[in-house]
Amino acid sequence: MRRLTRRQIMAAPLAAMAEPALSGRRIWIGPEYWANPLRDWRVEDGWIAADAGVDRTLHCLTRQLAGGPFMTSVEASLDSKQNANTGRTTWAGFRIGVRGLLDEYRHALVHPTEWVDAAIRGDGRLVVDGEESPAAVSLEGAVKLELTGDGRSLTLRATSGPQTIELRKSVDPARWRGNLALVAATSPTRQAARPTWRFRAWEAGGDGVSSHPERAFGPVLWTQYTLSGGVLKVSAQFPPLGEGDEREARLEIRRGGRWTEAARAPIDPMARLAVFKVRGWAHRADVVYRVAYRWQGRDHAWEGVIRREPAGDALKVGVFSCDNGYAFPSPATVAAVKKQDPDLLYFAGDQIYEGYGGFGFVREPVPLAMLDYLRKYYQFGWTWRELLRDRPSVIVPDDHDVFQGNIWGQAGRPLPTREEKGFELGGYKMAPEWVIAVEKTQAAHLPDPADPRPIGQGIGVYFTELNYGGVSFAILEDRKFKTGPGSLRLDRSSAEALDAPGAELLGERQESFLRRWVARPGKEIKAVLSQTIFCKVTTHAGAQLRPNILDLDCNAWPQTARTRALRILKPARAVMMHGDQHVGALVHLGIDIWEDGPVAFMVPGTANGFPRAWWPEEEAADGRYLDSFGHRMTVMAVANPEKGSNLLPRRTTHPEELAHRKGSGWGIVRFDLRRRTVTFEIHRTQGGLFPGFPRTVSLA
C-alpha cells in the first residue's frame, strides 16, 4: 500500500496550543483539554508540563481519531536535571484510540479500556504499541515527535537536532479510533520517581481527524441557580485560573435582543466559583441569561434560561443521589431526565465519591486536595450542565462529597483522629477551609441560610427555605449537627439501649427553623429535603449483601432526636425526600402509631456503588414493619438491586447494565397542587419503572 506524505495527510492544525493560551503559569490547560489528573498537569511559560505517572494523560476534547489516515506531532522535553537515570521506566508521547466500555468520549477520559501508545522513552528509544526501536536519540533538548497513521500501520518519528529515527508497526486502524491524548507515564513500579515531561506545539490533521469545537469545556464550566421569593441566585463554576487571569465574572440577561448586565461577582480563589444575587426578580416569562468572562483576550460565556416560575396546578421535581462514577457521564439517564423535563432538580448528596474519576484522592495539602475535589465535581457538572442551565436546582453535599465514608458533623468540630477509620467519633476529617469551599461549590446558589451563624471551625451553614411553584421546601443538613456515636458510651446490646436522649440529629437551630417553617401559614404544599431517611429501610449491606442490623449513619438514630424532629414536622403534613442508602423506597413513617408521620421518599443512586437491599424475611417487601431501631414504618414500595448484582465484575460489565442491575435510578415527584396529592416514581437506568411505582399519596 502506498505510503502517504505529511502534506497529503495533514488537513488542519490542532488549535489553541500556541500563544497566548500557553502564556504565564496556571494549572488548567484550557477549554479544549482534559487533564488526568488535574493536579499533575500545568502551563509553564509556553510549555505544558506533566508529572509523569501511571495513566497521566492530556486529552484533546475537540479532536477525535476516526480510523482514517492522520498525523499528529508535538515537541517533548524530559527534565533531565531533575530526573536523571529514568531510562526505560518513563515515556511520553501520544495515546490514541482511547475508548471505554461506554461509547462516549467523556467516559473514555476517565474509564479507558483500550488505547495504543506511541512514545519516546527516557532512554531515547521509541515505543509503538509495545514494540521498541533499536536506535535512540538524545534527550538533551526538545525532541519533535511525529506519529502517522497510514493504511494499516503507525509510524513514529523522533527528531533531536541532526538525529532522526523512526519506528513503524502494523496496527489495525480500528484500534486508532477514539480519543487523542498526550501521555507522560512511568511504570507502576517506579511511582516514587516522577520525572517531569514538557510539551508544546501539538498539532494533528488528516482525513482521519474529526473536529468537535462544541465539546470545549470552559472557562465558564456550568451554572446552578435558584429562584425564591423574588430573589435569583446563580453560581458559576470556573476552572483553576492563572495568576494574571481576570478574577471577576458578569451575569447578563437578554432584553430586546441586547445583553444587559444584571450583576458582577468575584471568583472565589479556593472554590473557583462566582455567585450572583439579583433581588426583585419579577419576570413573568422565561429570561435568557449568560455568565460572561474574558479569558486570554477572548470573551467567553455560558448561556441558560431562568424559567418562568410555574404558576399552574403542578410541579415536577427530579431527585438524584449517590453517583459512584463508573457510568460517567450517564448519557442514558440524562437523556431520559431531559425528556421528562422536571421543573426543579434535587441532588441529595454524594454527587462525587473519593475514587471518582480514578487516581485516588488527596487529603493534604489543602490546595492539592481542593484540586482533587474540583476535578471530581467538574465531572458532576459536566454530566448535568445541560439541565442545570435552564431550571432551578437544589444541591446538598453528603459524606463522600467531603471525603468521608460516613459523617457525624458534631457541629463542625475537627475529627479527633487522623486514622482513615474512626468517623464515628464525630467531626470533619478535612481542613475547615476545604469544607467551606466544597459547600460553596454545591450550595452557594441556595436561598440565604435561615440562621447564617457559622458552626465550629468557622464552617458555614446552608439550611434554608425555598419557595417555588406552589411548594415550600425546607432544605436541611442532617449530618452537620449530628452527634458522633463514638463520642458516647453506647450500650449496643439492643436498639433500645442504643438511644442517647442527649444526642443531636438536626440540632436546636434546625429544629427552631422547622418550628417556624411549620407554623407559617400558607396554601403551599410543604416538602423536606435532606440527605438520608428517618428510618432504617435496608436489611442487607456490603460486598456480599449480608444481613445488617444497625446503621447509625441513617436518621433512625438517635431515636429520641429523630422522633422529636418528626413531631415538629407532623402538623405540616409534609413529604420528605432523601438519597444516601443506595435503595429506593417510599415509606410512611410512624411516630406514636402507624402512619402518623410524614411520607418519606428515598431514591437509589444514579450509579449505585456500595450494595444495600431491603430483603425482609417476610415474603412481601411492602407492609408494616418495625425497623431495627424500633420505629414504625409502612413500606409502600421499594427499588431493590437484582440478586447477584453485587458480584458483577465492574471492569468488564457495561456501565449502564451494571448500574441497572445494581438497582440504580432516579426519582420523579409530581405535586398536584389542586388535588393536594403527590405521585412518586423511581425510574431504572435502562428504562421502565421499578415494581410498585408510581404511587400517589393524598395530603388532603
Fraction of residues in H or I helices: 10-25%
- Percent strand equals 25-35%
| CATH 2nd-level architecture of the largest domain | 4-Layer Sandwich
Number of domains: 3
CATH superfamily (homologous) name of the largest domain: Alkaline phosphatase D (PhoD)
The total of beta strands comes to: 40
First-to-last CA distance: 78 Å
The radius of gyration over CA amounts to: 27 Å
List the uncertain runs. Answer: 10-20
Sheet with the most strands? Answer: 8 strands, antiparallel
Which structural class best describes the helix and strand composition? mainly beta
CATH fold-level name of the largest domain: Purple Acid Phosphatase, chain A, domain 2
Contiguous helical run count: 9
The first-level CATH class of the largest domain is given as Alpha Beta
Estimate the mean pLDDT confidence: 94
Principal-axes shape call: globular
Sheet with the most strands: spatial strand order: 1-3-4-15-6-11-12-13
Your description of this structure?
By secondary structure, this protein is mainly beta. It folds into 3 domains: 6-215, Jelly Rolls (Sandwich), CATH 2.60.120; 222-306, Immunoglobulins (Immunoglobulin-like, Sandwich); 314-698, Purple Acid Phosphatase, chain A, domain 2. It contains 9 helices and 40 strands. The strands form 7 sheets. Strands 1-3-4-15-6-11-12-13 form an 8-stranded antiparallel beta sheet, with no helix packed on it. Helix 4 packs parallel to helix 5. The radius of gyration is 27 Å and the shape is globular. The N and C termini lie far apart (78 Å).
